[in-house]
């Protein structure tokens, strides 16, 4: 993306604050005007005051210098306030837009971008853009503006000295343009290296218990050090291009001043140039070339920011995989679901996760989903709230294709509890009421009672106000599952999906929960489990193997008709008898 292209991306976010965005450069122009007046006033002070011995003129000129400096100070402060208002609000809006887009992406899209890269774009990249917005309204107005103004006034003061300054400025500008363009791609590579480092950090922090359990702390440190070193090297390669900017600009500045003195001093001695004009010309040269030096350092940040803008735009331009039709309908309250010849394959998978599945989920029934690991149980459940779309076939809700329904109305009627539920930092009350924040306390208590969570909640110090910690770290696996089940029940779904959601519960707690679940009215239940004992009281059980539906019926019917189900049952019952007998 070019610099101009990056500005067009930002224009959408700047538009709500355009008044402030216009006033900030205007204030900067006032400050520039006050700064440009100083060399002329210095020239007047020397020529008409000091050399002429006119004390009154010297005092008047001094007062004008103080007044213009004060006006410049006020304008500069106002510019800084206005620019900060714009940059901070634009940054907040970009972060909100990025997060809104991120939560609409499919799991496969997030895996493609990686969570590390998403975090970098929401934080580091947005910070770079905020810096760019601040500079666009301040430094990138002040630097070129002061340089051009100084050059114009120097040319007006003395044409030959002005041309010398023009040549110096063109040389510096060409050098800055070349280095900035060259550094852009390297800053892009540095940002990708930062993504990788963030991803490595996140993975190891999440899996810290696993790392410690296998005593692999050193391997984790080595992986982080490698990612950290790659980021440092990538950043240095970008900065190496720019390290010569400041010394070269200083060299050109010093050479220009020496040339001006060499050209102007003999003319002062000859009387064809006043000392004040020579001093003013040197001041203009210093202002112009120093402004370009300031622009050089800002172009480093600009190159980084434009690389970040490119990455932000790439994420914002990603179309969510789950799109809602323009004339989408509201989902009915009747959870009569038909799965019709459904196939589903994960990206880059060697075989489909589901193939030709046809299944009916009847309103009010409790349907069990059985099968070995990798059979397709979780994949099927993920398709029901339309977290993904089938590769082929369709799923209908009360006769309507899921793709023809409003996503919000569908998901409001479906609740899904996974084997490893995610809890949020906060209190137990906040977590259980997550899907329905305005739920009365009585509903929270009833949901916790059904989920067999009420007893342990009331025993905890703080009870409902107890903090659960990040990802529910203060709770056991079974407690987290029960809190997640209660959270799902509070939302009063029409279809409740339990995906091995009781795997961490003991047999007695699981049995008590399932008994309470059977008493619920106006709710359809789909319970997926690898343990057939969990599914014995289901109205029907659907058996999956390698993505195929191989049998549907009651427990007794499947024992008689489905060989795979019978093998799983015999295996699990044999293991249970072995445990009981101590073998």
UniProtKB/TrEMBL annotation:
GO terms for cellular component: plasma membrane. Keywords: ATP-binding, Cell membrane, Membrane, Nucleotide-binding, Transmembrane, Transmembrane helix, Transport. It holds the Pfam family ABC_tran. The chain crosses the membrane at residues 20-42, 62-83, 139-157, 163-184, 239-264. SUPFAM superfamilies: ABC transporter transmembrane region (SSF90123), P-loop containing nucleoside triphosphate hydrolases (SSF52540). It is found in: Cell membrane. It is a multi-pass membrane protein. InterPro entries: AAA+_ATPase (IPR003593), ABC1_TM_dom (IPR011527), ABC1_TM_sf (IPR036640), ABC_transporter-like_ATP-bd (IPR003439), ABC_transporter-like_CS (IPR017871), P-loop_NTPase (IPR027417), Type_1_exporter (IPR039421). The keyword Nucleotide-binding applies. One of its GO terms (molecular function) is ATP binding. Residues 22-304 form the ABC transmembrane type-1 domain. Residues 337-571 form the ABC transporter domain. PANTHER family: ABC TRANSPORTER, ATP-BINDING_PERMEASE PROTEIN, ATP-BINDING CASSETTE SUB-FAMILY B. This is ABC transporter related protein. It comes from Alicyclobacillus acidocaldarius (strain Tc-4-1) (Bacillus acidocaldarius).
């Amino acid at each position: 993306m070019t610099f101009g292209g990056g500005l067009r991306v930002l224009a959408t976010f700047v538009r709500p604050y355009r008044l402030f965005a216009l006033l900030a450069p205007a204030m900067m122009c006032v400050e520039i005007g006050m700064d440009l007046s100083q060399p002329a006033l210095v020239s007047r002070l020397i020529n008409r005051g000091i050399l002429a011995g006119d004390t009154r003129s010297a005092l008047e000129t001094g007062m004008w210098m103080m007044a213009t400096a004060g006006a410049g100070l006020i304008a500069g402060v106002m510019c800084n306030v206005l620019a900060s208002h714009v940059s901070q609000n634009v940054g907040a809006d970009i972060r909100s837009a990025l997060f809104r887009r991120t939560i609409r992406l499919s799991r496969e899209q997030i895996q493609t971008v990686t969570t590390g890269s998403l975090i970098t774009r929401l934080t580091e990249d947005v910070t770079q853009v905020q810096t760019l917005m601040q500079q666009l309204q301040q430094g990138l107005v002040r630097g070129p503006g002061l340089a051009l103004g100084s050059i114009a006034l120097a040319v007006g003061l003395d044409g030959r000295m002005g041309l010398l300054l023009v040549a110096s400025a063109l040389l510096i500008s060409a050098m800055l343009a070349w280095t900035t363009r060259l550094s852009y791609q390297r800053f892009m590579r540095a940002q990708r290296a930062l993504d990788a480092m963030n991803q490595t950090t996140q993975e190891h922090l999440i899996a810290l218990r696993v790392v410690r359990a296998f005593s692999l702390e050193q391997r984790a440190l080595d992986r982080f050090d490698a990612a950290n070193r790659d980021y440092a090297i990538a950043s240095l390669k970008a900065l190496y291009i720019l390290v010569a900017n400041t010394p070269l600009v200083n060299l050109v500045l010093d050479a220009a001043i020496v040339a001006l003195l060499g050209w102007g001093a003999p003319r002062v001695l000859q009387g064809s140039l006043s000392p004040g004009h020579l001093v003013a010309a040197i001041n203009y040269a210093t202002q112009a070339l120093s402004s370009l030096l300031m622009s050089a350092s800002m172009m480093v940040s600009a190159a980084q920011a434009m690389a970040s803008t490119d990455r932000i735009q790439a994420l914002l331009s990603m179309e969510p995989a789950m799109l809602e039709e323009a004339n989408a309908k509201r989902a009915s309250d009747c959870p009569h679901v038909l799965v019709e010849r459904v196939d589903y394959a994960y990206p880059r998978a060697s075989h489909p996760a589901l193939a030709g599945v046809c299944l009916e989920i009847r309103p009010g029934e409790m349907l069990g989903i059985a099968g070995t690991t990798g059979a397709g149980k979780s994949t099927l459940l993920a398709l029901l709230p339309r977290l993904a779309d089938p590769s082929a076939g369709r799923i209908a809700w009360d006769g309507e294709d899921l793709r023809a329904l409003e996503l919000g109305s569908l998901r409001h009627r479906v609740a899904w509890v996974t084997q490893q539920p995610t809890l949020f930092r906060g209190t137990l009350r906040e977590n259980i009421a997550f899907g329905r924040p305005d739920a009365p306390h009585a509903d929270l208590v009833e949901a916790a009672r059904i989920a067999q969570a009420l007893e342990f909640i009331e025993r905890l110090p703080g009870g409902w106000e107890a903090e659960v910690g990040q990802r529910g770290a203060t709770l056991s696996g079974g407690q987290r599952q029960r809190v997640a089940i209660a959270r799902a029940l509070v939302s009063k779904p029409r279809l409740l999906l339990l995906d091995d959601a009781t795997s961490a519960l003991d047999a007695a707690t699981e049995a008590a929960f399932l008994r309470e679940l059977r008493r619920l009215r106006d709710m359809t239940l789909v319970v997926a489990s690898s343990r057939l004992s969990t599914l014995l009281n289901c109205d029907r059980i659907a058996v999956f193997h390698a993505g195929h539906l191989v049998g549907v019926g009651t427990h007794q019917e499947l024992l008689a008709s489905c060989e795979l189900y019978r093998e799983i049952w015999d295996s699990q019952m044999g293991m249970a008898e072995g445990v009981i007998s101590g073998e």
